[in-house]
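[step 3/7] fold_predict: job queued, chain A
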Amino acid sequence: MNKTTITKLPKSLVEINVEIPAEDFSVFVEKALVEIAKDAQIAGFRRGTAPKEVVKERIGQAKILDRAASMAIEATIPVVITENHIEPLGYPQVNILKLAEGNPMEYKAVVAVYPQVGLPDYKQIAGQFELKKAEVTEEDINRLKMEKERHAREHLREDVLEAVAKKTNVEVPDILIERETERMMGQLKEKTPRALNMSFEEYLGKLGKTEDELRQTMAHDNELKIKNYLVLQELGKSGKIEVTDAEITAAIKKEATKEGTAAGEESNEEIDGQAKEYYRETLKTEKTFEFLETFFKK
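[step 4/7] structure written:
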């Protein structure tokens, strides 16, 4: 049986140490050897036909152990996360601590988890806001009323969420901020020459910022964005917000009709894979904001 140690770290991080006994790890070593042998091109043999002993000698034990370690991690870490009720935010960062033939294999994984979110009295905060009806002229009624109300509602929702987030006690994991900031910075560097017809360095000059200053600005904005997301998720839990499969299917069909495509063209499998989680999150967000609106001034 694997030996597992779970350690809570600051900033909503969890460290997972797993030691896989030598006899269990040997199973992964054998599977890795079989997998490598299937595609191995060894002189004197057709691809994939060389005996395992020959493959082991030519390929080298280090490569086999590396593959076995990857297979062991892929097989064990989801089990550890599930059994210990860990709610990960993103993928774990894994380091192999011990790896040698005939010995236990040990690795360490550090993963950001959903932090404890201490909500303020959001009912009282939301109760300070009032959704006012849009004022429109007679000729605007048919064309603009719904659009104006939609914009007013969206801005008000942002204001309410920001007000609740400001009074919410939650530590945003640095690893999430850094990951999102690096992703945005990479996209900006890639797209700037095409979109603005200038180099990234020229773009920085236009902004009057160094790359580090721009990264700091992005990191600050991303911290607020991630905090708002976490608060919204916690509000959904507080309001016991649920989205049914029937609601997801209805939303997909409605969108398909709007775009002029047949709702039944996609198979259930395609819908599950391509759209189900997107619509679940979209509908959950809408329901959560509707829940908050029940506390607005009447």
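[step 5/7] annotate
The mean pLDDT is 87.
Residues 211-238 form the longest helix (28 residues).
exit 0
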